[in-house]
Task: inverse folding
């Protein structure tokens, strides 16, 4: 085994946290640095027994935790917000080490992740209710109560933010959480768990409201938990294929589900758009995390009059990226999560080029000494609408560009996908913008903006991109059930 290269100062605990207690299990799996390929450390896998113990403890503490005063839950989230920001440099370094995104992006992720803690610290105090007279004259009271023990499964592309986006509303609503991070990136959340424990201790709140269950056998863990009716909620962020399996698994216990799944975002540039702004937006929407975001622009529809100019300007912007070690300040293009992913993207591109489904307009040359986990930014032109490079979620720095003449034809093509997470459009015409807002089938639409995620707004998709919303006023409702009282 190669030497472990992550220092204990960075991540102290590398075993599951079961109901607030660090457990010791024998099975361990490796976590690698996507840039160097080195072994960062081994993490102990949560066993089926750990999962059951975590759920039993969650079930036991749920009634009392669910009845804590909202201001206590709010104080917990405010304290966690502060601790997360105080530890932002350490957390950002861990994100970069295990995920490979450049340090500046990792710092931005920590700030974004902390934003959910702050937003839901306030939402905890604003859980709505209703009181009214029924048409027949009696009283009707409507309360919202915590849904119960919640399993939160997160992906590797935002190791911290995808967790706080779930933990913050879950705690705000009064739920106990069991978090299953991706086996590729479990270290960030294990380090953050230390802050959760510190926040709970400082407020004299029970440690058993949190469990962290890293595992390299996610299916076994989720099967064990989803067959136990004491689990009342599953919130999953990840691929549509795994999400669909989990929905089926959750059906027998009729658990509440929230699903943040894959996307295939169109990015539309109309002929009246400010092309420089569109290029800036495209870089933000496409190139963050080297294209590995669910909201990444996946297909570009550009009006034929401006397509060449848009691609020319975009190529200049791609030329300005600095590829290299993501821990070095100034790096703006890091590796993909592993070399297999770079290989998958290579196959997708060569298939499109060889079948004549696309032409290579631009390829950024990268230093040949960079590791195999790097994928070169590319622009593909004259792309056919039904090519795999358009219908698949690319999850890498490839930009397929199609042209259109008529905006209605463009909207039809943009909607011709099973996905519906987000759509981006650039236009200076109010009427075209409204036509796009009304016509695009997506849970989120960005007009003249390349960044849409915001803790204060409802994030989520329609169609195969998911169910439920995270963030905004809507985010807490996914963690609450409704109780109606009729009172004569
Ligand atoms: P993934 O579906 O492979 O894994 C996500 C999580 O599910 C991981 O923790 C993984 O260990 C776990 N998992 C895998 N198989 C499982 C099973 N059979 N049972 C239970 N858990 C299982 O996704 P990924 O590769 O980690 O992340 C990339 C995907 O996530 C992309 O499709 C991306 O679009 C999506 N994503 C969506 C959002 C969103 O908000 N909509 C955000 C980020 C990522």
Result:
């Amino acid at each position: 085994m190669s030497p472990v290269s992550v220092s204990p100062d960075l991540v102290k605990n590398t075993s599951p946290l079961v109901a607030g207690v660090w457990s010791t299990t024998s099975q361990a799996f490796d976590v690698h640095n996507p840039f160097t390929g080195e072994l960062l450390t081994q993490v102990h896998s949560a066993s089926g027994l750990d999962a059951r113990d975590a759920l039993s403890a969650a079930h036991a503490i749920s009634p009392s935790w669910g009845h804590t005063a909202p201001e206590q839950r709010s104080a917990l989230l405010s304290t966690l917000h502060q601790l997360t920001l105080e530890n932002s440099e350490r957390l950002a370094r861990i994100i970069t080490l295990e995920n490979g995104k450049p340090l500046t992006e990792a710092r931005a992720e920590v700030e974004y992740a902390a934003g959910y803690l702050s937003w839901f610290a306030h939402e905890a105090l604003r859980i709505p209710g209703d009181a009214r007279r029924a048409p027949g004259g009696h009283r009707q009271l409507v309360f919202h109560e915590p849904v119960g023990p919640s399993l939160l499964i997160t992906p590797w592309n935002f190791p911290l933010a995808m967790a706080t986006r779930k933990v913050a509303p879950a705690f705000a609503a009064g739920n106990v959480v069991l978090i299953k991070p991706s086996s590729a990136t479990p270290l960030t959340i294990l380090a953050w768990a230390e802050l959760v424990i510190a926040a709970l201790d400082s407020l004299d709140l029970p440690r058993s409201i949190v469990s962290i269950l890293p595992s390299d056998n996610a299916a076994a863990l989720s099967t064990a938990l989803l067959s136990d009716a004491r689990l009342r909620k599953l919130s999953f962020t990840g691929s549509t294929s795994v999400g669909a399996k989990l929905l089926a698994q959750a059906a027998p216990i009729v658990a509440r589900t929230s699903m943040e799944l894959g996307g295939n975002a169109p990015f539309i540039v109309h002929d009246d758009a400010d092309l420089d702004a569109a290029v800036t937006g495209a870089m933000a929407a496409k190139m963050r995390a080297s294209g590995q975001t669910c909201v990444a622009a996946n297909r570009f529809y550009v009006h034929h009059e401006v397509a060449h100019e848009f691609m020319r300007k975009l190529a200049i912007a791609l030329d300005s990226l600095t590829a290299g070690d993501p821990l070095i300040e100034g790096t703006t293009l890091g590796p993909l999560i592993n070399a297999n992913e770079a290989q998958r993207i290579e196959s997708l591109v060569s298939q499109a080029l060889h079948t004549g489904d696309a032409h290579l307009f631009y390829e950024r040359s990268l230093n040949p000494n960079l590791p195999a986990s790097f994928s070169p930014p590319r622009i593909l032109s004259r792309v056919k609408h039904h090519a795999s490079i358009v219908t698949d979620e690319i999850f890498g720095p490839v930009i397929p560009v199609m042209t259109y003449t008529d905006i209605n034809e463009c909207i039809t093509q943009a909607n011709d996908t099973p996905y519906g997470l987000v759509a981006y459009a650039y236009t200076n015409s109010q009427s075209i913008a409204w036509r796009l807002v009304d016509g695009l089938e997506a849970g989120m639409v960005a007009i003249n903006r390349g960044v849409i995620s915001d803790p204060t707004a409802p994030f989520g998709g329609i169609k195969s991109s998911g169910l439920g919303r995270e963030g905004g006023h809507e985010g807490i409702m996914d963690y609450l059930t409704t109780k109606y009282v009729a009172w004569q």
Remarks:
- The chain has a mean pLDDT of 97.
